[in-house]
Write a structure and sequence with these properties.
6-stranded mixed beta sheet, about 30% helix, 4-stranded antiparallel beta sheet, globular, 12 strands
């Protein structure tokens, strides 16, 4: 691992009114590393994703990117610093073709008239999908006509294209069948080769152990611990999640 983490969270605290969602959380992510964030419902996983993606601001604590303290005031500030999120609901426009979704909010135009450069966006989209081995009929296919796994592949490809530092994956396969889950996991595993840092939230411990390098456990907003995946097992992680020792 490099000396400087891509992301450092130091003593993050977040409360909503009198309810503490995250208490004193610290974690580092390095390039080319997949860290899984696990815990029961209400553990604080979604709140942490929202903090790193700029949707929530912590009440206290420090966020560093490449060793530099940053303030992620909103989602656009996070994106501008190379952070992309793939949510479970994907945030894709069903009636638009794949290539328009890939460049949503970042459309390419032709100068000097400012017309959409659809042919270039289509070509670049197909290249992105080919690089990640995402199989769809064409870059011109409408999102509504794709399977769940194909849609997830498009969402991950979009995040990969625009992320320069970090990708956050929030339950990327929760709504998928076995075969589509396996394909999406192949795509996620391939992201390591691009030297991105990846933080994945997953309810599936089988998936966590297949994909992750380290596992971070949350319980009721408290960080219980971080384990190297090869050096732990499901029994230990389940005990950390539940607080019940086998």
């Amino acid at each position: 691992m490099t000396a400087t983490p891509v992301l450092s969270l130091n003593n993050i605290h977040k409360a909503f009114g009198g309810v503490v969602a995250i208490k004193d959380f610290s974690l580092e992510l390095f390039p080319g590393e997949i860290v899984a964030l696990v815990g029961d419902n209400g553990a604080g996983k979604s709140t942490l994703i929202a903090i790193v993606s700029g949707l929530h601001r912590p009440n206290s604590g420090e966020i560093l990117l490449d060793g530099e303290t940053v303030s992620l005031s909103d989602a656009s500030s996070a994106r501008s610093r190379g952070i992309e999120v793939v949510y479970q609901d994907l945030a894709l426009a069903d009636e638009q073709p794949v290539f328009m979704n890939m460049f949503l909010g970042r459309e390419l135009t032709r100068k000097p008239l400012g017309l959409l450069d659809k042919s270039r966006m289509r070509r670049e989209t197909q290249t992105m999908l080919d690089q990640l081995d995402v199989h769809i009929p064409s870059a011109g296919s409408k999102i509504r006509d794709l399977s769940g796994g194909q849609r997830q592949g498009v969402a991950i490809a979009r995040a990969t294209h625009w992320a320069s530092k970090l990708i956050l994956l929030d339950e990327p396969t929760a709504a998928l069948g076995v075969a589509e889950t396996a394909k999406v996991e192949e795509i996620v595993a391939a992201l390591k080769e691009r030297n991105l840092a990846i933080l994945i939230v997953s309810h599936s411990l089988d998936q966590v152990f297949r994909l992750s390098d380290r596992i971070c456990v949350l319980r009721r907003g408290v960080q219980i611990g971080v384990r190297s995946t090869p050096e732990t097992d499901k029994n230990e992680i389940v005990s950390m999640i539940t607080g019940v020792h086998a």
